[in-house]
TrEMBL record, chain A:
It is a multi-pass membrane protein. This is Probable heme-iron transport system permease protein IsdF. One of its GO terms (cellular component) is plasma membrane. Keywords: Cell membrane, Iron, Membrane, Transmembrane, Transmembrane helix, Transport. The chain crosses the membrane at residues 5-24, 58-79, 86-106, 112-133, 140-160, 187-207, 228-252, 298-318. It comes from Oceanobacillus indicireducens. The keyword Cell membrane applies. Belongs to the binding-protein-dependent transport system permease family. FecCD subfamily. It is found in: Cell membrane. InterPro entries: ABC_BtuC-like, ABC_transptr_permease_BtuC.
Automatic annotation (TrEMBL), chain B:
It holds the Pfam family ABC_tran. It is found in: Cell membrane. It comes from Oceanobacillus indicireducens. This is Iron ABC transporter ATP-binding protein. PROSITE patterns: ABC_TRANSPORTER_1, ABC_TRANSPORTER_2. Residues 1-238 form the ABC transporter domain. The keyword Thylakoid does not apply. One of its GO terms (molecular function) is ATP binding. One of its GO terms (cellular component) is plasma membrane. Keywords: ATP-binding, Cell membrane, Ion transport, Iron, Iron transport, Membrane, Nucleotide-binding, Transport.
Amino acid sequence: MYKKLISFIAVIGLLLFVSLYSMITGSIEVGLGDLITGLFTGTNENVEIIKDLRLPRIIIALFAGACLSVSGVLLQAVLRNPLAEPGIIGVSSGAGFVSILMITFFPTLYFYTPLFSFIGGAAAFLLVYLFAWKSGLDPLRMILIGVAINALFTGLSQLLSAQNASSLMSGISVDASTLTMKTWDDVGIITLYGTIGLLLSLLLYAWCNHLGLKDKTLRNLGFQVNRARFIISVVAVLLASIATAIAGMFTFVGLLVPHIGRVLVGNDHKVLIPFSALAGALLIVTADTLGRTIMAPIEIPASIIMAVIGGPFLIFLLRKSDRIYGN
Amino acid sequence: MEIKDITFSYQDKVVRLHGIETSITPGKITTILGPNGSGKSTLLGVLTNNLAPQKGSVILDGKAIKQYKPKELAKKLGVVHQQNNAPSGMTVEKLVYYGRLPHKAAFTQHGDKDEKKVTWALERTGLIEKRHAPLDNLSGGQQQRAWIAMALAQDTPYLFLDEPTANLDIFYQYEILELVKELCKEEGLTIVMVLHDINQAIQYSHEIIAMKNGRIISHGNPRDIVTRQLMQEVYGVNVVVKDDPALGMYIVPIGI
């Protein structure tokens, strides 16, 4: 109990600290006081630039992290597979591919990117589910099929972008993610759909917990397993697609953050879901801040920083604790 | 419970149950016996609505089980499966509360009645001391009792147990069987179980259903149906059937 509380306080504290630090640091630097007065009065020129360029980027990083992490938690529950993650099983690359495809051929439909992204993500998930289903979901088979689907969609996306290496797909990058050139329109989209998805997943925590039991046990308790699975999957795909549509590809977050969460706050989804949302937001905003400051003016994509700090951290936590999902 | 002309096969189209026709007597313990692959677990799966038969139906209180709403059926029959698993760190009490799921509307909290039933189920299964212990810390016998407690909290007139004594030491096997006997006698539950041990089946059942190759070979009181011929036919094993005034009836396998 104590450990959970401390974990929450630590993550929230760090989240506030890193977000504020990120706002005042970079090629333009302002003091915290100036920033706050500037935001309200709109008279400080530097603060106006931060508001236009840096703030959207921070908000998007926060939401992308939260959405991808929670999507990972939900997919792991639905598929009963600790390795399930929107990046690994191809949901993100499916979302990315369909977005790029549509924008390449119908650039005027840019505003509908989240919708295309959702369709692509859902299609990829459905393919994984259908191919992996063989009178039950075999965890290993599912991951292998997910990896194959992911490779397919990543390949198709690269094919498209190689063919017309133009500025058409400004929003979506194929493999790495940089959070540059984000506007308040992007913020509007990700906060709207992201908030809806995150609230829905908080409501679904009990169902995610139920799925820790076997299907036949749940069926005999009168629980409609397939309905619950379908609804949770839709929310998971929504979260992953919206993050991909706005922030690009971040593999590994959906795997890393939930596992850190399980070690720190346990398997109960009532706490795991909100914790993962906060920790995911923290991870990506930290990665992005480091990415644009440590080698300035060169920017390192946030996804790269994240993998470099996240990987060792996960290994460290797993070595310290033998509590891995499902065992 | 009436079982009418059940025919069942998995996707491989091999017929596992051939026109099963029988009934389960309320308030009694019925044990399904038979060698591996005889269809006993499949039959249990059909009776508990986990497997949908291609033909025939199971009638419970005048209505086919597949016509029940999931929650309504879950208020009628509880099931303890053979291999169970729960997420790590789950406590006994939390698991037993799952038994209250069919009695609860979605997104609501537990009430007094749930609490009472859970406590009762824990008392019945002798786990009241262990209620806050994580399931992983319990012995095999205690874990099995925890799953039974979950089914008891479901508060159903029917209880199905698929090989409840599998993988347990002999002491725990009898502990489970004694519990089953008490539940039938004192709580009036109708119990249907699958067992491997013929003598345990004779000792603890009011009725035995003997199966082979997806067919019922014999169904009735153990004293009436367990014979040398039946054991030879069902298991292909030569047995001596003994009847001792003090020990009751038992069999001794002597060869094949």
